Amino acid sequence: MSNYAADESRLQALATGSDAAWRALYDDLRSPFRLFFLKHTSWEPEQVNALYQDAMVVLHRKVTNGDLAAPLRSSLRTYLFGVGKMIYRKQGGTATKWEEEIPEVAIPPAVEDRIAQREQAAWIRNLLNRMDERCRDILRKVYLHGYSMEAIAEELSLSGAGAARKRKFDCLQRMRKLISTEEH
């Protein structure tokens, strides 16, 4: 009898391609994976999220190709963390002394989504703060306060909604340049 009977039955459901089974596995392992890699690496949350996606893709391939099948020699959680460690190293992650303890604490997906939203909001605030006051004002009015182009044109004494759209477009272009310089 296997030590991983529950994981092996879960593996059977995953092998059928069940979206519900994959979604449940994804949600169950996301928080512990993130906690582990945020604690043991110097990577940013976005990098850890990307690492999790990559590790899940590898796990999905292994399961659907039949490369990962019963009897298991470890839990699916341990296997996924091992895949994450290998990808981390291949992507140039610095050598670290891994704790063998894998956290059991799971954060509900809704809470993780709120955390991700806060991280994105902070990033957008940072980008806005790096822009000139005029662009900051236009983008806030459009995206945060829901102003129409006509209202912006009137408030900024522009010739019309078309002029307001052009200003908004120019400001978004500046923001895109900030984003692209930040990514490189």
Give a written overview of the molecule.
- The chain is mostly helical and 184 residues long.
- It has eight helices and no strands.
- It has helices spanning 5-15, 19-40, 45-65, 76-90, 109-129, 133-144, 149-155, 161-183.
- The longest helix is centred in the last third of the chain and has 23 residues, at 161-183.
- The chain is elongated, with a radius of gyration of 23 Å.
- The N and C termini lie far apart (52 Å).
- The relative contact order is 0.09.
Which key phrases capture this entry?
about 180 residues
Mean pLDDT: 82
**Number of H- or I-type helical stretches:** 8
Query: Overall 3D geometry?
Result: elongated
Secondary structural class: mainly alpha
Cα-to-Cα separation, first versus last residue: 52 Å
The percent of residues in helical segments reads over 70%
Largest sheet geometry: none
Question: What is the secondary structure topology, with strand pairs?
Answer:
Blueprint lengths: L4 H11 L3 H22 L4 H21 L10 H15 L18 H21 L3 H12 L4 H7 L5 H23 L1
Could you give a quick summary of the protein structure above?
This protein is mainly α.
